[in-house]
Amino acid sequence: DAKTTQPTSMDCAEGRAANLPCNHSTISGNEYVYWYRQIHSQGPQYIIHGLKNNETNEMASLIITEDRKSSTLILPHATLRDTAVYYCIVRGRNSGNTPLVFGKGTRLSVIA
Amino acid sequence: DGGITQSPKYLFRKEGQNVTLSCEQNLNHDAMYWYRQDPGQGLRLIYYSQIVNDFQKGDIAEGYSVSREKKESFPLTVTSAQKNPTAFYLCASSGPGTGNYEQYFGPGTRLTVT
Question: For B18-72, what is each residue's pLDDT tens digit?
């Protein structure tokens, strides 16, 4: 699986959009971008994933650049409960039931 | 209410004792995983199992053992051979139900060994 690079930490004002970047310059054509988040002292939670088109669900939007070398997770109206560590993970299309490889992620602090 | 349960949430043991962490899922997932997390770090894989009665070592399996006798259960034993057992332990499962194989995590067990 391709390696990812994320900023160590970010701050965001409550009610504003939080934009979390991820670089994955060595991503291959059959690899997806996944995002998970981990609220303090809890297990990680799946957020969203995508291949090349932008994706949106009830939690967030995922914007993947045309060359697929980077992506941005967008939380449109951040709340204090969105304070967490966000992990960007690249996985092969046919990974199926295989383990996730976690980096250190981005620690997002939402400030009132 | 479907999900993954881990018990207990906090566990304290004396050095030299083996301890078993429980993980149960009722999601009918084939695969289950154990990860370890140290303060300020990402998760590291200890063991995983893709099917009953079969499991594979992860990156940091030394000092740990697992069993997978039932689909629903994947207990982890931290043995006295594990040099630094104090950590946050997370169990997860995955399956083809949603088509995406995303992993569902339990709430974790925080183990302290003194």
Answer: 999 999 999 999 999 999 999 888 899 999 999 999 999 999 999 999 999 999 9
The answer to whether B114 touches B85, Cβ cutoff 8 Å, is no
Is B106 in CB contact (< 8 Å) with chain A? yes
pLDDT of res. B97: 63
**CB-CB contact of B92 with B109 (8 Å):** no
Whether chain A has a CB inside 8 Å of the CB on B2: the answer is: no
CB B101 within 8 A of CB A95: yes
Tell me which residue in B58, B91, B95 faces A97 most closely, judged by beta carbons.
B95
Burial of B73 (0-12, 13-18, 19+ CB in 10 A): middle
Q: Would you state the pLDDT for residue B100?
A: 67
Under DSSP, the state recorded for A80 is: G
Q: Do B43 and A97 touch (CB under 8 A)?
A: no
Using a CB–CB cutoff of 8 Å, tell me whether B58 touches chain A: yes
Q: Considering only CB atoms, which chain A residues are within 8 Å of B99?
A: none
Query: Are residues B84 and B102 in contact, defined by beta-carbon separation less than 8 angstroms?
Result: no
Stretches where chain A sits below pLDDT 70 are 1-2
C-alpha B108: how far from chain center: 8
Chain A closest CA to B14's CA: distance in Å?
23
